[in-house]
Amino acid sequence: MEDVSLHTMLIALVFLLILSGFFSLSETSMMAINRYRLRYLAKQGHRGARLTIRLLDHTDRLLGVILLGNNLLNTASATLVAVIVAMLFGHDDLALFLGSIAVTFAILIFSEITPKVIAAAYPERIALTVSYVLTPLLIICYPIVWFVNLFVRGLLILFRLNPERNELEHKISIEELKTLVLEGGHFIQHKHQSMLLNLFDLETITVDDVMVPRSQVEAIDMSDNDETIQTQLLTCHHTRLPVYRERMDNIIGIIHVRKILNQMQNGKITVETLEKVLHKPYFIPSGTPLFSQLQLFQENQRRIGLVVDEYGEWLGLVTLEDIMEEIIGEFTTQAPTQMSTFLKQEDGSIVVEGSTLLRDLNRKLNFQFPLDGPKTLNGLIVEHFQDIPEAGVSLSIANYPMEIIQTKNRVVKTVKIYPVFTDAKIGDSGA
């Protein structure tokens, strides 16, 4: 070493720091790269992506060769600094101590922190490039890496750890998928993004959340006279109607209105005519997820079903269109009985029907009412009071001030909801 000039040693030291930085750069970029983006590039035929996937498939070998090179270079740098200090200052302990601090600082700045920050900012670009160097390097150093990994595997077995099994068991969650869709907003149209997010929610939304309540269902009573039934068929707003006898609990079938209207050309419609074209009612258990029900509609070739509780009492009606609206948004054509009335007042308040679904209020008016309990505004208010409130009573739910306008037949018919920022005085607070 005495024959080597100081200038040469300093150049060698810089070279060692740069090489160490390369391995730090490689480590961070390989661990930070987007695996899904990597698979896509590999399918497109990108050679660098394929090499990177092969390296990542054996993480122990990859980290082995990277850390082997990194630690060897850092150790060599520290040794070289010790030699330089000895040449300049002899065996001075203070000089050696200061030299150790200096080389540690240089390694941190130039070989560790800076390269890793750069790699974290541009993982894909760097990882795909360094894979061309790491692949042959791993082949050359494989015997050493294999020997070192023997001890690593031994420690993992000792601690009963199996990284390979954990990688296989790791699956992306629904929430992670939602995050990916949201982060891809620049590449996905807003409408398409909304549809994808709605698809994820189908597993958490049940038929109870979208069904038309029984009280709002348009149905035909077979016990009525022929004229009444015919008038109802001519003025109905749906193509499929439930049919009952005497009372709503006694559903006997579903009728397709178009088939009946075609027969009206040949004469009056009678009860006997209706009975011939009735379809067997299709019942849906309460609490069925929308995604499951969508599949059941397809398998059973149905478009309409009656939601029933555990006692067999039917609660409401769900159609295929109701489920599709949860995915793609509301259609422009709706029956008057299904339309939620929102009347905006001059003071910024909104008059809403008590039967309005909370999901509709949250979606259309950007409210934040809780959805884990009652489904309608009336149900939410009744649950709050544990009783049927009288008209004129005011309250606040989820920080939304509201006033009961009308109650009828043991239900809240009309409610006025004030904006959160209003200074309107709410008297007689029931909250």
Protein architecture, described:
With 431 residues, the chain is an alpha+beta fold. It has 3 domains: 6-169, no CATH class; 207-328, CBS-domain; 342-417, Uridine Diphospho-n-acetylenolpyruvylglucosamine Reductase, domain 3 (2-Layer Sandwich), CATH 3.30.465.10. The chain has helices at residues 6-32, 35-43, 47-56, 59-89, 93-121, 123-140, 142-158, 163-169, 174-183, 190-201, 207-210, 226-235, 257-263, 271-277, 290-300, 320-328, 358-365, 377-385; strands spanning 212-213, 220-221, 240-245, 247-256, 283-285, 304-308, 314-319, 342-344, 350-353, 394-397, 400-408, 411-417. It has a 5-stranded antiparallel beta sheet with strand order 8-9-12-11-10, with helices on one face. It has a 4-stranded mixed beta sheet with strand order 1-7-6-5. A hairpin with a 1-residue loop joins strand 3 (240-245) and strand 4 (247-256). The longest helix has 31 residues, at 59-89. The protein starts with 5 loop residues before the first helix and ends in a 14-residue tail after the last strand. The model is unreliable at 422-431 (pLDDT under 50).
Order of helices and strands: HHHHHHHHHHHEEHEEHHEHEEHEEHHEEE
Q: Could you tell me the radius of gyration in angstroms?
A: 36 Å
- Number of helices, where a helix is a run of at least 4 consecutive DSSP H or I residues: 18
Instruction: Give the strand line-up of the largest sheet.
Output: 8-9-12-11-10
Helix content: 40-55%
Poorly predicted spans: 422-431
Q: Please provide the count of β strands.
A: 12
Helix/strand/pairing category: alpha+beta
Strand content: 5-15%
Overall 3D form: elongated
